[in-house]
Amino acid sequence: LLPTALPALAFAVFVAVLVAATAAWIVGPPLWQRWRRARIAATPFPPAWRRVLRERWPLYARLPPPLQRQVQRQVRWLLAEVPIVGCAGLVVTDTMRVLIAAQAALLWLNRGGRGFPALREVLVYPGAFVVDRVEPGGAGLAHEGPRVLSGESWQRGQVVLSWADVAGGAADAGDGRNVVIHEFAHQLDQAHGSANGAPWLGRGAERYARWSAVLGQAYAELRERLATGQADAVLDPYAATDPAEFFAVASEHFFEQPHALAAAHPALYAELVQCYRADPRAWW
Ligand SMILES: [Zn+2]
Fold it and tell me: Bridge-partner residues for 160, per DSSP?
């Protein structure tokens, strides 16, 4: 090797290392993540967690075994990657973590990867919590005044839950009220922009066109019915708040009262089957 070739060789090695490091940085995390998830999925589901699901969430026992396994896998991935943080002095237990993650997993059946990729953390209060903040309104700032909430979903990957409402919603699996389903439906909606009642539906503009036509009509009919003093056969009146709430409330009824929802709103139900890649009528 000629002495003059040394700097060129050193430079080539330097460039090669730089390229390799950059490539590892780009493809590294997902590969490492996939390996970690595969390892987690291969270990048995803790029997204590299975007991929590069987004893505290009656809907779990109704799921066919392949879907139960999907829920189990999703629970472990979510709990490995998303911190669940206690607020107002709440000490978060495994029971709480498992019940929250399992109900959220219902909204991610028959899809790949960890559910809710944008989800960063879940905050849990012991019970309903009071929110008192100034919200940006049409003309400057509008102060809404204090509100008592059982849950909230934020666009930047945060979900806030009341543990009392999570536990109650899980225990009564057929009443069409479930704060975890509600708030995680908002997360799906918010994953691609602000909440507007349209989650990601896959590729194809026609799917969105049909979705907005069907949900828009059902939403308009509900508002009309309520305006004339009638109640809907299934949908909670809160669904008439705005299109985002309509989707979240319809999702609660979809998983917990699928037969009633399908009978009263067949077109809406069919869209939700496509969206959630499951037909809960088979479980009830
Ligand atoms: Zn909501």
Answer: 123, 152
Residue 26 pLDDT class (50, 70, 90 cuts):
confident
> What distance in angstroms lies between residue 68's CA and the mean position of ligand 1's atoms?
27
Pairing of strands 129-131, 158-162: unpaired
Give dist(CA 257, CA 265) in Å, integer.
12
pLDDT higher than 90, residue 146: no
What's the whole-number mean pLDDT along residues 110-118? 94
- Of the candidates 151, 135, 138, the residue with the CA atom closest to the CA atom of residue 184: 151
DSSP state of 3: T
Torsion angle of C-alpha atoms 214, 219, 225, 229, degrees rounded to 10: 160
Expressed in angstroms and rounded, the spacing between residue 94 Cα and the centre of ligand 1 is 26
Give pLDDT tens digits for 225-278: 999 999 999 999 999 999 999 999 999 999 999 999 999 999 999 999 999 999
Ligand 1 center–CA 234 separation, angstroms: 17
Whole-number Å distance, alpha carbon 152 to ligand 1 midpoint, is 7
**Centre of ligand 1 from the C-alpha of residue 176, in Å:** 14
Q: What distance in angstroms lies between residue 238's CA and the mean position of ligand 1's atoms?
A: 9
